[in-house]
Design goal:
The structure is a single chain. The chain is mainly alpha-helical. It has one domain. Helices cover 57% and strands 9% of the residues. α1 packs parallel to α3 and α2 runs antiparallel to α3.
Length: 138
């Protein structure tokens, strides 16, 4: 729920700080795999892993990663890079969203297929109640 509020605040800030309020810009780009598209792809896969391994569910991780990409595209559409530099963009790009979605799908697929190492097979080291505990299985 907190993320929804944060995303709404970011979108309102993007509209509020735009010099031309309400002017929506569309990017004139292609689906070519440029550094920008690579950043969207890797960033979305990375954000999926970040959320997933911070104990969010798979669905929440997918949604929040997509919301981050969508929020960035809204900022790109409303804040021209000519005035705001790195904070702005060249417009809303459907291809950037495509690469965001592809990154999330690849991140989900890797997370589904690649099972983690089972460290609990013989021993487990944990920190509990200000003590380091070594638990061994016999």
């Amino acid at each position: 729920m907190l993320w929804k509020h944060i995303m709404v605040i970011i979108m309102f800030l993007a509209i509020g700080y735009s010099q031309q309020i309400g002017i929506w810009r569309w990017a004139d780009d292609t689906a070519e795999f440029t550094m920008d598209k690579e950043a969207h792809f890797v960033g979305s896969a990375g954000s999926y892993f970040f959320f997933r391994h911070k104990n969010y569910s798979k669905l929440e991780s997918i949604k929040y990663s997509f919301y981050l990409g969508l929020g960035k595209e809204c900022i790109d559409a409303l804040l021209p890079w000519e005035h705001y530099g790195k904070w702005g963009g060249d417009g809303f790009s459907k291809y950037d969203l495509l690469y965001n979605t592809a990154g999330i799908i690849v991140g989900y697929s890797i997370d589904y297929v690649w099972k983690g190492k089972n460290v609990n097979s013989y021993y487990n080291i944990t920190y509990y109640n200000n003590k380091i505990m070594l638990i061994m299985k016999f």
